[in-house]
Amino acid sequence: MERKFQMVHLDHGNHKTDLGFLSQAVEEKVKKYHESFPVYQETPLAHLQETAKKLGVGDLYVKDESFRFGLNAFKVLGGSYAIGHYLADRLGKDMKDVTYDFLTSQETQKALGDITFVTATDGNHGRGVAWTAKQLHQHAVVYMPEGSAQERLKNIQAEGADASITDLNYDDAVRLANRQAEEKGWVMVQDTAWDGYEDIPRWIMQGYGTMGLEAYEQLPAKPTHIFLQAGVGSMAGSITGLFSSLYGKEKPIITIVEPNEADCIFRTARANDGKLHPVTGHMRTIMAGLACGEPCSIGWQVLKDYADFFISCPDYAAAQGMRILGNPMGNDPKVISGESGAAAFGAVTEILRNPELKDLKEQLQLNEKSRILFFSTEGDTDRENYRHIVWDGKYPRK
Question: 220-254 burial, b if ≥16 CB within 10 A, otherwise e?
Fold first, then answer.
C-alpha cells in the first residue's frame, strides 16, 4: 500500500448511541475501583507548551500512560476492571462494593475457586490481564499474534501467565483464544465484541475511562481537539464517549487515527453504509498495538455517532511522534512513547509541519488557538525497536 495520509469526515446529525455507560458518574465508580489497588497512582499529563508554540498551535497535552501500574501501558485499566466485574457478578456483588482487598481476601478466594482467564494480545493488553490474574490469585493464558516482540512475551510470562507467540494474525489469535475458552471453560477477556460477547468488552471500555477521567480532572481548560489512535476502537470509543458525555454539544473535535495497513475503523467510516469493514492479511505496521483488522462493534457505535474525523496514516508518522515526544522543545517534559502510543501525536505533528497536508490542517481547524489532548497509551514496551526508531532513524518520511 502507498504510504499516505487519508481522512474522512462524518456528519452525525442526531446522535443515537446512549453514552450512559461511559458517563462521568459511571467512570467515577470505575476510578474508585482502580484506586483500591495498592499500586494505583494517577499518571501525569505532560504540558508541551514550547513544542506547541513551535508547531503553531496553542497548547499540547499528553497523558503519559508509561507510568500506569508499573506496566508501561494503559491496557491494564480495561482488563483489571473487566475481571473485577466478572468476579463481582459471579459472587452476586455490586461493583461499588468490590475492591482489591475484597477480591484478594481468603473468603473471596475460597468462594471463587480457580479461574483461568484467556486473551489474545500483541503485548500490552495481555500483560495487563496476566498481571491482574496474578494480583487476584488466578491464572491467565495469553496468545500473541505472529511477529510479536520477544520482550513483550517475556513481560507477560514474568506475570505468571502461560503465554506464547502464534503464527496467526491478531484477529485469528482472538478466535483461537475464544475456542480455547469455550472448550476448556476459561473466561475470555477481550476488547473485541461480537454477538453474544458484549459484557466484557463494555467493561473493558469502562475501565479505560479512568485514564480519560484523570485527564479531564488534570486539564486546566477544555481542549478544542482530541486525537485518539485506534486498533479495534475500544479505547478510542471509551474516551470519545466520555468526553462527548462530559461536554455535550460543546464537545471537542475528536479525530481517530490508524495505520494504513490496519485501518478498519477508517474504512468503516469511509463506507458509512451501516456495516463493519475489516482488514485482512498480515497488517505489517510498526504500530503493533493497532494492528487489528476487525472493529469492536460497541466502540464503533460510539465513534460513528460522536467522532468527527478518521485518519489513516503511514508508519513514518508514528516514528516521528516517538522522536518529537522524546525530544520536545525547551523545558517541555519528555514523554517516552512507543509506536502505538505516539501514533496520533505523530500524525498531528506531520499535518502541522507538512505543507502538502495543508488541506487536512484546515479541515481539522488546527490553528494557534487549538488546545490539543493526546493519550500516549504505552511507553517503550519494545525497547529494542524503540532505540532502532529513535536512535537509528528507522521509518523516516520519504
Answer: eeebbbbbbbbbbbbbbbbbbbbbbbbeeeebbbb
pLDDT value for 1: 45
- Mean of the per-residue pLDDT values of the chain: 96
| Res 175: pLDDT | 94
Q: Give the residue from 385, 374, 391 showing the smallest Cα distance to 338.
A: 385
Say how far residue 262 (Cα) sits from the centre of its chain: 15
| Residue 19, C-beta contacts closer than 8 angstroms, at least 6 positions apart | 241, 242, 244, 245, 302, 306
Question: Given the C-alpha cell 474522512, which residue does it identify?
Answer: 8
Q: What are the CA-CA distances from residue 100 to residues 80, 130, 353 (Å)? A: 10, 16, 46
Confidence of residue 230 (pLDDT cuts 50, 70, 90): very high
Percent of the chain past pLDDT 90, that is, above it, reads: 93
pTM for the whole structure: 0.96
Tell me if 142 sits within 8 A of 161, measured CB to CB.
yes
Crossing angle of helices 297-306 and 264-271, in 10° steps, is 50
Instruction: Enumerate the active-site residues.
Output: 75, 122
Q: Which of 91, 73, 197, 64 lies closest to 130, judged by CA?
A: 73
| Among 369, 289, 374, residue whose Cα is nearest residue 78 | 289
* The three cell numbers locating residue 207: 475501565
Q: 391: how many CB neighbours lie within 10 A of its CB?
A: 9
**What phi and psi values does residue 95 have, to the nearest 5 degrees?**
-60, -25
Residue with cell 463494555: 202
Higher pLDDT, 123 or 143: 143
Total Cβ atoms within 10 A of residue 85:
22
Q: What is the mean pLDDT of residues 238-264?
A: 97
pLDDT of 45-78, one tens digit each? 999 999 999 999 999 999 999 999 999 999 999 9
Residue type, 349: T
Q: Give the pLDDT score at 193.
A: 87
Model pLDDT, residue 2: 53
- Report the alpha-carbon distance of residue 340 to residue 284 in Å, rounded: 13
Q: Which long-range contacts (CB under 8 A, 24 or more apart) does 165-168 make?
A: 168/143
